[in-house]
Structure formats: C-alpha cells, structure tokens
Amino acid sequence: MSDTSSQVQPVQHLPQPAPAAAGTVTLATSPAAAARLRLWPAVVIIVIQWLVITVPGWIRPGTPEQLALMVNGAPLGAAAIALWWLFASRAPWRDRLMVLGFFVVSGVAMYPLYHATFNFRYYGPIVRGLPLATTFWIVWLEASSRLRWPLRRLGIFASILLAWCYCACLRVDGVNGAFVPDVSWRWSPTPEERFLAELSVHKGRCCSRNYGAGRRPAAIAGRRLAGLPRDQPRQPLDWCPDCHGLEANAAASILEAWHRAGLVFLRCRW
Question: Which of 24, 43, 117, 119 can pair with 172 through a Cys bridge, CB separation 3.0 to 4.6 Å?
C-alpha cells in the first residue's frame, strides 16, 4: 500500500483564464471587419473618370467624340466604383450591400428635387451628379482612414447625400459649343431676369427726365412731328434714344430712320 501510494503523483491544477468582464471588447474580430480597405483601385477609377470627362473638352471641344466620352464616362466610372466596392474593397459584405443600395435609392429619391434645367435629358444627374457622388464617397474614405469603421460607414452615407443635395441646388443656364454647362445656384436670378432688371433701372433713369432746357433735338422733333403743343406739360415721350428705340412711337421711329439715312440734321435751341 505504501509503495502504491508513493507512486501516485499528485494532480496539478492549471490556472484557468479569468472570464472577460461584461462590456469589454475582445481583440478577435472577423477577417472582413479587421482588414484594411483597398482604396487605390477606387482612386485610380476616380482620376480616370474625371480625365475622360474633362480632357476631351480641351483637346477636341464640340466634337461627337467629346460628347460621347463625357456622357458615357460618368456612368461607366460609377459602375466601376460599384464593382470595386462589391468585389475588391474588403469591406464587410453587409456594408457593401447597404452602401450600394443607399447610393441608388438616394439618387433616385433626389431626382424630383432637381431643377428642371438640371434634369434636362438627364444631363445633370448623369454628367454632374454621378461623378460628384462617387468622388465625395472615395475622398471621405481616403481622408478618414484613421477613424473607426462605424464612423466611416456613417460618413459614406453623409458624403453621398451631400453630393445629391449639392446637385439639387444647381441650375443650368445653358451649354456652350464645347458642351460645358453654365451652372449657377438655382435661387440666383436668371440672365433674363437680370436683363429685365437692368433695363427697368435704365429706363427709369433716362426716360423719367423732363425734356426742358437740355432736351435732345430728337425728342424735340418727335414732339413737333407728333403735333404736341409747346405749352403742354413736360412729359417723357414713349421713345428715348438711350433705350435703343425699345418703345418707339410712330413719329420717333420715322425721325430715327431719317437720322440713320443722313437726311435730317437738326439744330434746335430752346
């Protein structure tokens, strides 16, 4: 018995690891969440996209090739960004689908809020909206590389929405021969409104004068041809030489034609 008991070795109890306290975050994470995003392909796509949109306008402006590259370069660049995000970004799959769905749904939802000139033939949403949205998206990911992923994911949504909202504030006043749009804020006065405002101010300044001692010969002769008496109260005529004949009456129009033909030379002193 003594020999048997002496041969039995005591069992050593190894220390068990302490359980993790509630609320602590373990270091082990999923490979997809811990992996760093692969951003360089997206940066290359964005650079090529803007080169395709802008450079043909400098080299061959106003040509069918320039128009085709500008119109097709924007959606192709957006499609390339979508493929990169789905298959080569290393982001969690749930976030890949969520961000891409938000990109499409928000773009379609913002379409009715755009100005009518911005939506003309889908020029604004395609040529201006898609490149801006993808650029804001990738620039945010590149600038927020040191932030945690939940904050970066929230920033993606905000950057895409910011791009769509910026497009909703724009208005296209026209396109030049190189297919470059004249873009302005939608709440700013249009060129027609600015012209009418300047014209009304000019008319109020030049046509409200009393034609007295300093009256122009054309205005005096116009009153004479119209048969107006000299003692009539001084009132401006319907026509003013400074308004380029925009409101010319019959007598003033005839007189202006005589002046242009060089048939009448008036020297009047009043």
Answer: 117
Structural tokens at position 99: 């961000």
Of 76, 247, 244, 225, the residue nearest 236 (C-alpha): 247
pLDDT of residue 15: 54
Question: What is the C-alpha separation between 178 and 61, in angstroms, rounded?
Answer: 5
- For residue 147 the two structure tokens come to 């932030």
- The rounded distance, in Å, linking the Cα atoms of 201 and 207 is 10
59 burial via Cβ count (<10 Å: 0-12, 13-18, 19+): exposed
Give mean pLDDT, residues 15-26. Answer: 48
49 pLDDT higher than 50: yes
Residue 81: φ, ψ to 5°: -65, -40
Supply 219's token pair: 């205005």
User: Cα–Cα distance between 92 and 84 in angstroms, integer?
Assistant: 13
Please state whether the predicted TM-score (pTM) of the whole model is above 0.70: no
How far apart CA 242 and CA 28 sit, in angstroms, is 82
Here the tokens at position 241 are: 């030489």
Output the pLDDT for position 255: 52
CB 162 within 8 A of CB 139: no
Which among 252, 182, 188 is positioned nearest to 220, based on CA atoms? 252
Angle between helices 64-87 and 130-143 (to 10 degrees): 40
Asked if 215 and 270 count as a contact pair (C-beta separation under 8 A), the reply is yes
